[in-house]
Amino acid sequence: MPKSGFVGIIGKPNAGKSTLLNWLLGEKIALVSPKANASRKRVNAIVMHKDNQIILLDTPGLHEKEKLLNKFMLNEALKALSDSDLILFLADVRDNVEKSGYQWFLELNKKNIPHILVLTKTDLVTKEELEGKIKEYEKISKALKIIPISAVEGKGREELLDTIVEYLPDHPYYYDPDIISTEHIRDIYKELIREALFEKLGDEIPYETDILIEKLKEFENLDKVYATIIVERDSQKGMVIGKKGKKIKEIGSYARKLLENFSGKKIYLELFVKVVKGWSKNKKMLEELGYEVEL
Ligand SMILES: Nc1nc2c(ncn2[C@@H]2O[C@H](COP(=O)(O)OP(=O)(O)OP(=O)(O)O)[C@@H](O)[C@H]2O)c(=O)[nH]1
Ligand SMILES: [Mg+2]
């Protein structure tokens, strides 16, 4: 009997959750951005490790804000807690222990939710700093194990996967071991186009935009993708398009590369821009974009 189970990845915004999911999977399916609060939805990845099956759930960063969309994001993260056999709590190793989502971490301890503490981005600190941080966490932590990793240097992957498997239940595979995710292709494309928005637009606009995949036509060596960039205001539409359409071209060609890397096919991508005032506060619009809000 193999081991199989669900593993929720949670932590503060920007801790490196989506990067971890992509890195453990060996494929980029979740959007990554230097800007915090980038992920809005759960994304799953199915990772086979030594004939065991690990189903990873990436979640939006834990934060507290009032907007309807933010409530949805927090809910997504909390749901992952109850749906998981094991939690990976991620903390950026540079953060102060008390600031790295401390209250959420204590909550895991208090509720006896089995979790591994993963200290991320170890390439950005010295060995001494890392050791000091581990000691600090050891004082407050009830984690099964503390594992430092660096996705950039490729360190800690094997130890992390071995440890995850150690704590998973004996269980037959939940999914065909050949599939890498149960996400729909169009949802992965949506996430990757959103990454292009985060990469190519300023600090504010990405938070007020989203992507609607209008149409996806799949051929053997080519996918045709028609997507609308939803913005909140008229002024943002102008910024997304840019002078003589320069900005939207940049977004398009960046996104196209991400889609091509993922699919291994040629991508034809057509982008439109549409103003939908107040979309992030509108339940119906959020649902259309794939965010089911439970109130
Ligand atoms: N140097 C370094 N940077 C990293 C590492 N892992 C992630 N990052 C960077 O940290 C930033 C945030 O990464 P994400 O994976 O998007 O973080 P997240 O936790 O998913 O963020 P949200 O979805 O916003 O909650 C990105 O700029 C990543 O490139 C790492 O191991 N080393
Ligand atoms: Mg993320």
TrEMBL record:
GO molecular function: GTP binding; GTPase activity; ribosomal small subunit binding; small ribosomal subunit rRNA binding
Domain of life of the source: Bacteria
Signal peptide residues on this chain, from the entry's feature table: none
Domain KH type-2: start-end pairs: 193-277
Compartments, as annotated in UniProt: Cytoplasm; Cell membrane
NCBIfam families: era, PRK00089.1, small_GTP
Protein name: GTPase Era
Gene name per UniProt: era
